[in-house]
Design a protein that fits this description.
The structure is a single chain. The chain has 171 residues and is mainly alpha-helical. The protein has a domain of 106 residues: Orthogonal Bundle (Arc Repressor Mutant, subunit A), CATH 1.10.10.60. 73% of the residues lie in helices and 0% in strands. It contains 9 helices and no strands.
Length: 171
């Protein structure tokens, strides 16, 4: 007779052991993630480098996935900082608030897609805007053009611009 109590129970016990092992591994990973955000003693310079590195990591995340969850709370958690401290350090590094910076990066990403001929609806979705009107308001505020006007201006398609001018009355 085996340690697990028989051959039929061996498979069940092995499966339970593997399940327990997987749970333990995920608990260790979660503890490691939490431990990386725990403040330890050290010099002020090292803490400054760690916080700056956390904010730089968040900035890299903004550029890597502009359509992702880029709320201040999510970015601050990624940097292992409070939302207030994250915002202060972020603004010191970039000169802009996190929200304004994210919006500017998203508008730039949408403009890149519009130059490639992607529709404004798809560009808005791929850039992380809630809908096309959100993209339109943001683009008008940043560059003075709607997404469609921007696309027509930068792809060389001026037929819609000239048709709107010819239909206007000049009396």
């Amino acid at each position: 007779m085996s340690f697990f109590g028989g051959t039929s129970n061996r498979k069940l016990s092995t499966m339970k052991f593997m399940s327990d092992l997987a749970q333990a591994a995920s608990a260790v990973n979660a503890a490691a993630m939490n431990a990386s955000c725990v403040r330890t003693g050290g010099t002020r310079a090292l803490n400054g480098l760690r916080t700056r590195a956390g904010v730089e990591l968040a900035i890299a995340q903004i550029h890597a996935s502009p359509a992702g969850d880029l709320s201040v709370a999510a970015l601050a958690a990624r940097a292992c900082l409070s939302m207030w401290r994250f915002t202060v350090i972020f603004k010191g590094l970039t000169g802009e608030s996190p929200h304004r910076y994210v919006t500017r990066v998203r508008v730039g990403h949408a403009q890149h897609l519009l130059r490639q001929g992607v529709t404004p609806v798809d560009a808005a979705q791929a850039s992380g805007f809630y809908d096309q009107s959100h993209l339109s308001r943001s683009m008008k505020a940043s560059c003075g053009m709607s997404p469609k006007q921007f696309q027509q201006h930068h792809t060389g398609d001026t037929s819609a611009l000239f048709s709107s001018l010819s239909s206007a009355s000049y009396t």
